[in-house]
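=== RUN LOG ===
request id: a7f3
mode: sequence -> structure
chains: 1
length: 234
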Amino acid sequence: MKKIFILFLLLSIHAKAQLGKSMFTKDPIINLENFDKQRVYWGYYLGFSNFDFKMDYKTNDGTGIDVQGNSGFNVGLIGALRLQEYLELRFEPGLYYASRTLTYSQFSNERDGLREVKATYIDFPILLKFSALRTGNVRPYLVGGVSATLNLSSNSKSKDDNAQQKFRVQPWTQNLQLGFGIDLYFEYFKFSPSIRGVFGLKNELIPDEDPNSPWTGNIESMKTRAILINFTFN
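=== RESULT ===
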């Protein structure tokens, strides 16, 4: 995750450097001066993600699960409706490839003690974007909203469970998204790096058939947590 964050900072710094004098001089050259006067506009984004689970347990018996988030990739489209000068309503459907590795300390062999939970998400977020006053060719913003997410790799219809090495989760979940970013106005396009947190609102676990399963029996709830780093082009 540190590598992704460092990459986000480096790309943002590089983008600012490319703007050069048009951004930081006393009388900057204003790029795309009328861009923010559009009622509706479109774009797309590419990015990286790191998905995790927030685990709540029924009992604290010392057999916790170590969850390791793995870096993933995301891509999507953007449709924006300007409600007023500083506020936009945005629809950002996207495709996310993610995985987590669950390690169970009570098992002595790797076959039983490791589960890789892969996910292919189709995300449908409705967001509000609150923009600050534009200064030259820079405009910071906050973004937040809710999303419904379909996991195409949930294994929810499988009759097998962890006894057959099949970890199952719910196909649909709902999330809260909160984040911030910067709009950087270039001569021909607007580039917007952003970082967001994703907070699952629904228990995603499908328990094993055995209520005393060593893999799911002690889990009260399992909710998505994620960090998204997106690079948006309009």
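=== NOTES ===
Strands lie at 40-57, 65-84, 87-91, 94-104, 114-131, 138-151, 172-185, 190-200, 219-233.
Helices lie at 2-19, 21-24, 110-113.
=== END ===
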